[in-house]
Structures are given as C-alpha cells and as structure tokens.
Amino acid sequence: MKDRYFSETPLSGESVTLQGSEAHHLLHVMRAEPGLEVVVFDGLGGEWSAEIACLGRAEVELTLQEHAAIERENSAEISLAVPLPKGDRQRWLIEKCVELGVTHLIPLTTARSTKNSAEASAKLTRYVIEASKQCGRNRLMQIEQPQSWSTLAACGLAPLRVLAHPNGAPLSEIETGDSVLLAVGPEGGFTDTEISLAVESNWQVVSLGERILRIETAALAMVSQWVLR
Ligand code: SAM
Predict the structure, then answer these.
(1) Which tens digit of pLDDT belongs to each residue from 207-227?
(2) Are residues 60 and 84 located together in one domain of the fold?
(3) Domain boundary residue among 36, 68, 100?
(4) Looking at residue 46, which CATH number applies to its domain?
(5) pTM listed for this prediction
(6) What pLDDT shows up at residue 114?
(7) Domain Ribosomal RNA small subunit methyltransferase E methyltransferase: where (predicted)?
(8) Of 18, 68, 65, which Cα lies nearest the Cα of 46?
(9) Are 123 and 203 in contact (CB under 8 A)?
(10) Atom number, ligand 1, closest to the C-alpha of residue 211
(11) Percentage of residues in the chain having pLDDT higher than 90
(12) Pocket-forming residues, ligand 1, beta carbon under 6 Å
C-alpha cells in the first residue's frame, strides 16, 4: 500500500498543495523526492493516486492522477456516545473507533463523568486523520459537540439506541439496523436516574459480559460486537 496523505482542501482538478503536518511528514520524515507516488484523500469519500510534482520549504505540490471511488465503511452507520477518558486513553479510544468504522463520536457528559476531559478539538481531529491514513478509511469519523446524557437520552435522533450497562440483556438479543446510537457510561457508571431515563426513552440496555470493563474497553467491545453481527 502506498503512503497515504490527507488534504484539508477538497480534491478536484489536476493538483493539490499539502501544507502543515502532511507536508512536514513528506519533507522531513520521508525526505520525499519529486516523482514519488502516494495516495491522497480529503475525507469526503474516495482517494486519488498522486505524484509529487515539487517540494517547497513548507509545502508539497502533488499532481493528481486517478480518482478511485473506494470506500472502507461498515454497512451500518454507527454513532457512539462516550465520556472521553484522559490523555493516552483518549487517543487510543479515538484511534480504535476510526479503525472499527464508527461514523460519529459524541463526547458524553453524565452525572458522574469527569469534566473537561476532551482535548482541543483540532487535536482530536488530528487523531482521526492519523488513524484514517493508517487504516485506509477515506471518510473521516465526525467528532460531534459534547452532549449531556439528559439531552441525548431523551432525543430520538436514531431509531435504534443501545446503552451498555452491566445489568442489561445480552447484545445478541437486540435487533439490528442500518443506523444505531450506542452509549457507554463513565468510570463511576450511569446513575439509577440516568438508567431510568434511558428506559423511559426506549433505549435498549445491554450487558457486555460478566466483567466490568473500563470506558474504552466497553466502547470497543460494544462497537466490534455490533460490527460483527
Ligand atoms: N461501577 C460501574 C457500573 O457498575 O456501571 C462501572 C462503570 S464502567 C468502568 C464504565 C462503563 O462501561 C459503564 O457505565 C458501562 O456503560 C460500560 N460497561 C463496563 N462493563 C460493562 C459490562 N460488563 N456490561 C455492560 N456495560 C459495561
């Protein structure tokens, strides 16, 4: 597989100029030369084969060759609401969600979640881009605005809404669908009031097994079980 680069500018026409960290990587890590063949994508779908035309001090111009309408998405659209853990665990969670094909990630605040755990939005987007380059995804996972559980639980955005809780039913008993909203609670768990609100709002409550999983493990176990159904 050729090295993949992300263009913040939507791709069309005959060429594109990469700047910022993408150009830095080609110039100073890869020490690329004109003529090197790469793949470039803009996160809006599909990818282009491209060749380095010229190198500047801080930018790289690519000649666009052929567009391939290649997608590596799941058949189901998966939104995941989860309180973001801190530091490396946050990065790891975002990276794995991209790899597993989550389409929308909603940072969740609940009664027991710790505050201000989301890093700056540009940093989260950078994690998404790096993971997409690595795993071959051509559409970027969208990181939504943080939402409180009280708002999210009561809103009927997705027809199918599934909440992870140790007292729930096995995930295999839940109906499947083209679009699902999955939710995972904070380290301290959802409160009884939050669980009641979910049940009143027609969320289905599922167990992920006998052991108590940390936030990121629960999120990835839930997403991967959903993808593999
Ligand atoms: N003591 C908390 C409780 O009982 O809910 C543990 C919280 S756990 C560290 C964080 C979140 O992961 C939970 O709110 C739940 O959404 C999910 N989770 C962890 N283990 C789970 C399991 N075995 N089944 C279902 N959900 C689980």
Answers:
(1) 999 999 999 999 999 999 999
(2) no
(3) 68
(4) 2.40.240.20
(5) 0.94
(6) 77
(7) 73-225
(8) 68
(9) no
(10) 23
(11) 87
(12) 164-166, 168, 184-185, 187, 189-190, 207-209, 211-215, 218
Q: In this predicted model, what pLDDT tens digit does every residue of 189-209 receive, in sequence order?
A: 999 999 999 999 999 999 999
Same domain, 186 and 102: yes
CA 75 – ligand 1 centroid, Å: 27
* 165 Cα to the center of ligand 1, angstroms: 5
Same domain, 136 and 201: yes
Q: Average pLDDT for residues 38-67, to the nearest whole number?
A: 97
The tokens of 158 are what? Answer: 């997705």
The atom of ligand 1 lying closest to the CA of 206 is: 25
- Token digits for 90? 């946050």
Ligand 1 pocket mutation pick from 109, 172, 212 by most atoms within 8 angstroms of CB: 212
Give the pLDDT of residue 116: 56
Q: In whole angstroms, give the CA distance from residue 154 to residue 152.
A: 6
Which of 165, 192, 216, 224 is the best mutation target for the ligand 1 pocket, counting ligand atoms within 8 Å of the beta carbon and taking the most?
165
Q: Left, alpha or beta for 116 (phi > 0: left; psi -120 to 50: alpha)?
A: left
Contact 75, 63 (CB under 8 A): no
For the chain, what is the domain count?
A: 2
